[in-house]
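ARCHIVE CARD
Drawer: 12
Card no.: 0347
Subject: one protein chain, sequence and derived structure
Cross-reference: see card 0346
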Amino acid sequence: MKILLIFKKNHLCTTGQYILRVLERKNEVYILSDKKDFRKIYEFEPHLILAIDDGSHYILDINYHPKIIWIIDSHTSFMCDIVMAKSFDLIFVAQKEYVEKFKKVNKNTYWLPLACDPEWHGKQNLEKIYDIAFIGQTGKGWRKKLLLNLKRDFPNSFISSGDCKDIGKIYSQAKIVVNYNVNNDINMRVFEALCSGSLLMTNKIKNNGFEELFEDKKHLVVYDGTYKDLRKKIEYYLKNESEREKIAANGRKLALEKHTYKNRVDFILEKILEIQSNKAYFINHSNLYYKFLKLQLFFRFLFWKIIYLRIWILFKEIYTILFFK
């Protein structure tokens, strides 16, 4: 099958790269990173177009079907994502709480959580030299303060942005991997940590399908979001190795069985086959419609970038100052 992938290929450890690794095994794949001229798609003549959310926003203004998009960051950029999604035939959304909102513009919308790549994130038989590991940006507000406290109270830890190529290695060397999501999202770190075979400890995620995927104290450990509760649970599981390793093993087993990027690609292709039998799902829009979407996206992007994000960050900082515990 000839598949055209749309994503920024210059970034190494992204969902687009992991999907590419899976698709290349059995398909001819062409990558389009330049979103200025989608007419190049006609030169490749793919059987399908699959766009992976890479943080950029655009309108796919050609009537070439099927065209599919996997929206990942709706928890931070929904106001732009919802406009972009209108130019696609089929929508997959990583965060379940936004699925119904996308269905209002396209009924062919499905929940598709993020996943892990066992070759990159899998367990390595290495000595557990860290008590805690966290790979990523410290960010701002609550997460930043929480991570700084962890560094202070658990100095034998790896808490840094690190090299994404070393995720599997570093997590395998840790007794516990800590996660703190940005905005109630089930992020990549959840699946990467589970895949590594180390105990994942994550803050509570509400109304986003978390309980449908995982069970607390069976596959991972959930803390209430406060540093007080996180520290208490870290101290407990550092002392109770057998219990910690049992949960970690269950989490790894679940990740390898149900939450790899191979699982996600299979689901995407399954849904594509379903809609391809009904050409009514493929709508050819006018140039005027695409121009309208571009204009709408332009103004929403300006508001999101200049006003919304600044207010959101300021709110997070004030909230942390007032309520952090």
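Annotation on reverse: Residues 118-258 form a domain with the Rossmann fold fold (CATH 3.40.50.2000). The first helix runs from residue 15 to 23.
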